[in-house]
Amino acid sequence: MNSAINHFVLLNSPSIFEGILFFLLFILVLYGSYQSTKNLNSSKKRAAIVSLHLLSFLLIIFILFNPAYRVEDYKEDKRSLAVIVDNSWSMNLPSGTEGSKRNESVRSYLGQHSKFFSQIEKDFYVEYYLFDQELKATSLSSILNNEPNGSVTIIGKVLEEMIEKNNNNELDTAIIISDGADKEESIASLGDRLESVDFPINTINPLTEENIFDVWIDGIESSEVTFLRYPFTIDVSIKSNINDVLEVPVSLYQEDKLVSIKQASFDKDSNEAKVNFEVNPVSLGRKIYSISIPVLSGEQITENNQKSFFTDVIINKIRVLQVAGRPSWDVKFLRKALKRNPNVDLVSFFILRDPSDLVFASETELSLIPFPVNEIFSNELDTFDVVIFQDFQFQPYGIFGFHLNNLKDYVSRDGGAFLMIGGSNSFNSGNYGRTSVSDILPVKLDYTPKTLSETISNQKFHPELTDIGKSHPIMRIVPNKKENERHWSEMPKLEGLNMVQGLNQSAIPLLSTEDGEPILAVDNIDTGKVAAFMSDSSWKWNFAQASEGNVSPHYEKFWNRLFLWFVNDPELRDVKINTDKPIYNPEENAKIEITTLAPENINKNSLPIVTLPNGQKREIELESLSANRFSGELKVRENGIYKISVVPDGESERYQDLNKSETIFIVEPPENEVRGPTANLDILKLIASKSGGKFITTNERPEKLNLDTSKKKTITGYKTKKLWDNPFIFLLLIGMLSSEWLLRRRWGLK
Fold this sequence. Notes:
There is one protein chain. The strands form seven sheets. This protein has an eight-stranded mixed sheet with strand order 8-10-13-12-11-14-15-9, with no helix packed on it. The chain has an eight-stranded mixed sheet with strand order 17-16-18-19-25-24-23-21. A six-stranded mixed sheet has the order 5-4-3-6-7-35. It has five domains: 10-74 and 722-746; 79-211 and 678-710, von Willebrand factor, type A domain (Rossmann fold); 215-314, Immunoglobulin-like, CATH 2.60.40.10; 318-568, Rossmann fold, CATH 3.40.50.880; 572-673, Macroglobulin (MG2) domain (Immunoglobulin-like, Sandwich), CATH 2.60.40. It is elongated, with a radius of gyration of 44 Å. It has 17 helices and 36 strands. The chain is an alpha/beta fold. Helix 10 (373-380) packs parallel to helix 11 (401-412). Helix 8 links the parallel strand 16 and strand 17 (344-350).
């Protein structure tokens, strides 16, 4: 509806400085006029002159202010209302003891009061928004079907956007529906922002009770990068919002395996408990750990009772202990290959003689460094990643049963790796069949001592890849599978084979003779790894494709890959899987990139498989970026640990796990959204009170909100008529000045 209104305006409104100046001039005119009329005897005459002076001055000032008469045309229209609903993840948390979620309370509230919200759409121009860090335009139907997924709540930024909309005449009033869980904004700073708000903001809280009992994991401090076999600490802080909690058990898991449990005691003043764990990683790659506390009686929020974190275990250097029974070509070339590897820290002991040798010199002249048996096998064993016995007989050198038991525990309990290499002092030839070492070797040894001729075959033989050896990553000296088999078929023959009584049930043979006798076998012993190489002539492989004076690339690569397998290095795999982040929030897209050394191994038959936290498996479609790079995306929803695996194409089903490449990542709610306190009603109350709005809960009717339904007047145009621009004003001024001059002349004033 269009209307008009008439009113008086000053086109040249004075500033504060000009107003002060005019006031001082007025005082000056008054004073001058009084002084100039003090000789008059009549007070009436004096008053007449002074009045004419002041009226003339005021009329001049009036003219300078440019007075006008304005007729404004305006229209009346509905006001603009914004309904703003919190989209941060904390809205998925319980609203109270009844267990319903906060976003469900919002949906229920909007549904129950649909008549009210239908009416406000008649009374206002209504716009709907979701927010976490900023306003996002949406619709009422979208809000009713929305699943909150915002990573952080920043109400201060949202207020800035609302103020800007109000300044642009796009917003007149607002309703914010939120739990107020803003950890970025303090009450004091929010109060300062609200000083510039001059429109009412109403707030609605979806919590059915103000004080929800909660115990939560407040923080975990741990390194994102750790070193293999170097212990690292995990510091955990737990908090509570009541004083009744005294102690809680804190559990540490590696994926689904329990690592340790500790008791945490709460400080009565701070309601905080601290506990720390120490972990010694025994394999490389990304490790995911979880801290968990039990859900206490009366506790409604359980999402913050468990928190996962990751550490990428890298290797500083593979620490290798090489104990050799005597110098030989085999020992020399292996030592040279390990020394050439910059990632290997090699400690070697060579036994040049045994105690039964007849010598004619003192011990001090024969030995620079005595073999430190107790120091190595009792104190320092767990500082090594791999221990090698190479053509070494333990009996003459003070190594007893408890030393070998320590070696067994180092493998099976501590996750170490052990390699025995053949020779006349190894396996049955070294009488290891009656020791605890035989319990961890992948080959079966004879308990009864045998002669050298019964345990060593001096025949030449050609090593052949076993069926499983063709697929095993240790034996992949070239990426292409067929080329790899060809290169192994061209390797030089070996001479000298340690004879054993077969393989243990769980052992994996990788190389064998033409007659099927094992040459190389590997096995996993609990958390550790073992390997047996049944000959002392692998040094002959050094001459396959080797330039003069250098180690053969095939020989060197074989041994290096074996040591990478010992420490479970991801670099052993030809296929590498990477994600753009190690931790995602629900409803995010996990970006996956796959690279391969053998492009023919990745195609439609080797799509990545993701294992969801509930155990279900799903394929991920790939897009080719280049010949050896592929990418894909996965929308993650369920909280937990996800595993992505790729099996190169062409592997038989029986051996697929050998070359499976894997990576893992975490999906969990945003930390700031679940770490208590998860609601802040004081923020909502402050916004309402400072802006002139009303604070209510979803238990109260929306009619209590402060919503002005009156029409807003918007000026559409105006006409201005200047009042001083007419003869009457000019004649009035001339008349007052002339009257003052005539009266002064008549009454005898100058």
